[in-house]
Amino acid sequence: MKNLLTALVLLLAVFSIQAQELPSTTLKTLEGKQIDIKDAVSKEGPTVISFWATWCKPCIKELTAFTDYAVDLEDDFGAKVLAVSIDDTRNSARVAPLVQGQGWDYTVLLDENQDLKRNLGIVNVPFTIVLNKEGEIVWKHSGYSPGDEETLAEVVEEVAAGKTPSH
Amino acid sequence: MTKLSLSLLALLVATSLVAQSQETFGGQLHGNFQLDGQLYLRDEGIDPSGEFYPDERFLGQGYANFVYTQGNFSGGLRYENYQNVMLGFPEGYRGEGITYRYLQFKQDNLDITVGSFYEQFGSGMVFRSYEERGLGYDNAMDGVRVKANPAKGLYLKGVLGRQRFYFEKSPGIVRGIDAEYNLTEFMPTLDSLGYRWTIGASYLSKYQRGNDPFLVLPENVATAGVRTQFTKGPWALQAEYAYKANDPSADNGYIYKDGNGFIVNLTYSKNGLGLIAGAKRIDNMSFRSDRNGSTIDMLINYLSPTTQVHTYALPALYQYATQINGEEGIQLEANYKIKRKTKLGGKYGTLISANYSVVQSIHKSFVDPSNDTLRVLQGYNSDVFERGDIPYFHDFNVKVSRKVNKRFKYTASYLNLFYNRSVLEDGLGDEAIQNNPENQKLLSADVFVFEGLYKLKSKHYLRSEVQHLGTKDDRGSMAMMLLEYSIAPHWFFSVQDIYNYGNPDVDQRLHYPLASVIYTAGTSRFQMSYGRQQRGIFCVGGVCRVVPPSNGVSFSLTTSF
Fold it and tell me: Is the domain covering A20-160 a CATH 3.40.30.10 domain?
């Protein structure tokens, strides 16, 4: 029994140490072109993937609050921010005008059938993940409350410096 | 036992070593878990007769998803558990079991899924299977899906299967094909000129046995749709048309009329300006894999609403839901960011948005009931160019958001709402209303919302909302106050009170206080709330469910890995 427990603990440990990657999943650009998420991430620096929707108020707050940080992180560390909208096809027509109206500068991708959301086991938006430049998932966060953008910026800086995120 | 455990251990150690050195070996496991529960308290204020008070006192439900991907292979399953289903969720969710499982692999431009899957064709007017767990909506397909990319820019999909109906399957079979052609990928000239052009077409048929003693029911019912998306610079045009063959159903009163739907959207996005103009008309487009289905059960297609979704608590009490038997409407929306460091825009810029949407019935001239045969066949005639005369909904709103300084941000909104309660709450048909227009229950309301966000110090924020809904109709006017204190990244506290001071029934002029605390750690989140919940309509997308009033302690745990 004790051995079995040890085996179980080890099994969990295996899953936790193992670097997680993005599962290959097809998304759409705003122009209607299909693209694999793995080809959209940055190879030079960390990538932030923020899952959002036009009807999700905290998501819009998070992305708006993060705009100022994103500019600096991009310039200083070659970071890239992907805003992945999980809006369905009807609402996806509203995505581009909303992005412009908010003055966001992010690369926006559409996950209309929510395939990536499902493949990553995401329950609700907003949901944020950070990848290092090797493409490994190093940080995940669910939900948004004001101030989270500060934590996210710190995490991206740490990842860019090759450190393990402290939060 | 020891031997087995030891060999397991050895295997695991080996796997972990390999996994670390070679990521492709181990594959990726992702998943999530959610558990909700509520302890209900008897509250005579909101529920004098006790009709909404559950026998169980405590209700809880949850699920877990697991998705494993390794290279071109993936597989997953979901376990669901309802002990018993919580108030406001469809009653069909009782019990527990594995409701979703699939295997998928990709090879030679083919993508094959067997088991459960979610898929959609175009905007979903012909076919969309999807889930909205928070709403209890799930019409997952169980069968086979094949996706192929036989030529550059050409994407094909084929589906075959039955839909989920709680812990069972729909009686009807669904089979469909879809083709999408990205002309830009095919013709590089288009691309170099800056055009992006996609066209698509779909065809779907359902089969359900018909053994009605009186009606000769069509057992095979087909729908077809065409669509296009065209973009050039800041402009984008999307249009879709769908046709459905005659399909007598509980929704349309078993008439043999065919159905059709049309949606068009034109958008412009450039330099901080976003504009949307949309129009749609649907006529008799209810389509289910069981002709006797109702509410949110076994819908094959998805007729998206063309109204804005409101998330502030008071306007969200009167949300619009698509009327699948017929509606027409337009939506206009503008978003603009006034540049920073301008006189109007202030130091940080200012966001302004305005939205107008209106939905009404389509024109219907009902066949005289005395002419019985024709009545059963056609039901009504509709003239596309004539306007319907029953107003369903309208919403005009403006919103201004501005960051005043480093510590303070605000959003001020005004909304004018019109909501036809007879149609949207009671589900009355057009004919009943046309015969008796003065008995309609309508609601007009003016709503003001002011939201402020104050940064107290690094990672400490206070958010407040003041809302007022002014109306003489339904439950009368309400005022609301909310305060939230968040300490990033872990803690979140919130208190709110809605005061229904204008209720025409003096005994129902109640307060609805609610307090919550949320703790977040990475991807895990624990929420606990205590207080009163108003009767309301909870909507996601175009689908809504009625939530009865309740009082009690609720909790929710979600996590994902």
Answer: yes
